[in-house]
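Subject: design request, 538 residues
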């Protein structure tokens, strides 16, 4: 009887202990309502107690790098709460925020954020500490507070992909430097690390090239644009469009992005989408006597560069200046998409080239064009990125394919051993409408809701595990035919950019759309404070 009572009591005690352990585990692994971070961290463990961040809190910074992070934190606190913290190099026992730049324990962008009642510490390589700061900023309340309570926790986080990009077309409609910087700030806030700057196209040349001044004197201006939605019958809106970035402005933007751990990739379109360049220098075409102009409507045009020594010399000169302006970018994007070959078909220069180089058709002429430019770009220590049309006629040896027409190009390139960046239009084109065409702004007819963007997996399911290693990551694209102002860009990009951020950072098993929407709602007050003109999803 006593033995039975002992066993019964033991079972009850054991049950209590098990329940306690399960409860603690649930607390440790649950994401509480206040941890509304986007993109979602890989792991969050909640502890007991809170860290009090107030005016008496100190920042421990003992190196140049950690002092930079202290400045970032103080700038954020001053802008949002009206106070700054004292920075010291003397160890503190309590009420201290500290940064630890560590090389060996983290990958490039990984970090840990550890919060206890006495200390708050962010550890990682430099870029990782920066991303840890972005996580901390999202955890802080958007409204002014004298003292901020941060729950005790441990976050261990790292990105799924090394390439996490956002694109911005400034050719169709020029965007001022101030907005480009704001765009970069918002990218950094959600842990993007590549800014793809689309600088030239049929509708405008937007980068100063010292050796060829007519590119911006003539190529950066058009008298008007297509009025309303695209139709084959042109109707102008009567509003001139102009603007370009000086080389000093380019350098300023590149440095601004670098300070936020973002690499700027310039895109200089070739051999198609070159109307603006040909308007300035018609001798670069296969029909130099023809009249050319900066295009006022949208679509694809027959005006393309002629593959002559004159053209290649011009492009090498242009790219030499471009490469000097973007020293930190390992890549130069050369476009290569939507090349109509009509002007090549009856060109004596192209016929001579095909005979000399044993090219069987115009697709191989395009491949020759891309390969020749790649060889020059490689000689400058850079790799080329091209849209998936560069696969046509044979892919250049070291090229990276940016797959936009679905995933077919990426699959073909990865299976051939080439690196790919995923940007399929059915998931990643933020110029597509977000709601009912009757109520949305005039623009593209394709519907791309937030939930579909969130469902994007950059790794095509057709790839084997070895082939999937060639997927560097992905990006969202912003084509501005129907976006004349920064406010219109923001409306089309936000909040879909946040869904893309999570697609590229978080693992598929760590994603949940319902949970994302909960965390997204907590982002809107901060975006309001930042003056972002987002579209509130249904």
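Subject: RE: design request

Done. Sequence follows.
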């Amino acid at each position: 009887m006593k033995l039975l009572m002992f066993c019964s009591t033991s079972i009850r005690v054991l049950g209590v202990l098990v329940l306690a352990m399960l409860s603690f585990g649930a607390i440790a692994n649950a994401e509480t309502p206040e941890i509304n971070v986007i993109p979602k961290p890989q792991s969050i463990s909640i502890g007991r107690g809170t860290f009090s961040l107030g005016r008496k809190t100190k920042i421990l910074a003992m190196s140049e790098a950690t002092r930079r992070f202290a400045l970032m934190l103080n700038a954020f606190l001053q802008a949002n709460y009206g106070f700054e913290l004292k920075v010291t190099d003397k160890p503190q026992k309590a009420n201290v925020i500290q940064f630890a730049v560590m090389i060996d324990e983290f990958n490039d962008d990984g970090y840990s954020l550890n919060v206890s009642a006495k200390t708050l510490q962010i550890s990682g390589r430099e870029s990782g500490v920066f991303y840890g700061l972005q996580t901390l900023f999202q955890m802080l309340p958007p409204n002014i507070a004298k003292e901020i309570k941060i729950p005790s926790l441990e976050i261990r986080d790292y990105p799924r992909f090394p390439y996490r990009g956002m694109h911005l077309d400034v050719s169709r409609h020029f965007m001022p430097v101030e907005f480009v910087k704001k765009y970069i700030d918002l990218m950094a806030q959600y842990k993007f690390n590549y800014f793809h700057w689309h600088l030239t196209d049929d509708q405008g040349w937007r980068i100063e090239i010292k050796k060829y001044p007519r590119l911006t004197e003539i190529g950066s201006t058009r008298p008007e644009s297509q009025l309303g939605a695209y139709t084959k019958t042109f109707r102008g809106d009567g509003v001139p469009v102009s603007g370009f970035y000086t080389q000093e402005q380019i350098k300023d933007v590149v440095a601004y992005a670098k300070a936020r751990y973002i690499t700027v990739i310039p895109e200089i379109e070739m051999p198609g989408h070159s109307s603006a360049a040909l308007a300035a220098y018609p001798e670069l075409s296969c029909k130099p006597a023809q009249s050319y102009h900066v295009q006022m409507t949208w679509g694809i045009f027959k005006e393309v560069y002629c593959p002559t020594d004159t053209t290649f010399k011009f492009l090498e000169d242009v790219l030499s200046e471009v490469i000097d302006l973007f020293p930190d970018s390992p890549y130069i994007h050369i476009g290569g998409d939507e090349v109509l070959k009509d002007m090549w078909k009856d060109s004596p220069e192209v016929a001579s080239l095909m005979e000399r180089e044993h090219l069987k058709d115009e697709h191989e002429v395009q491949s020759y064009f891309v390969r020749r430019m790649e060889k020059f770009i490689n000689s400058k220590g850079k790799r080329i990125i091209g849209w998936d049309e560069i696969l046509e006629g044979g892919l250049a040896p070291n090229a990276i394919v940016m797959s936009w027409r679905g995933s077919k190009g990426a699959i073909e390139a990865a299976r051939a051993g080439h690196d790919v960046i995923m940007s399929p239009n059915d998931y990643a084109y933020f110029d597509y409408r977000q709601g009912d065409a009757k109520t949305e702004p005039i623009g593209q007819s394709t519907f791309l809701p937030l939930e579909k963007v969130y469902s994007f997996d950059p790794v095509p399911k057709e790839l084997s595990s070895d082939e999937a290693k060639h997927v560097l990551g992905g990006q969202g694209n912003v084509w501005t035919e129907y976006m004349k102002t920064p406010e219109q860009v923001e409306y089309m990009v936000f909040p879909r950019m946040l869904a893309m951020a999570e697609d590229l950072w978080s693992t598929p098993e760590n994603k949940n759309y319902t949970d994302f929407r909960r965390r997204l709602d907590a982002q809107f007050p901060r975006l309001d404070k930042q003056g972002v003109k987002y579209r509130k999803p249904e």
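Residues 1-33 have pLDDT under 50 and may be disordered.
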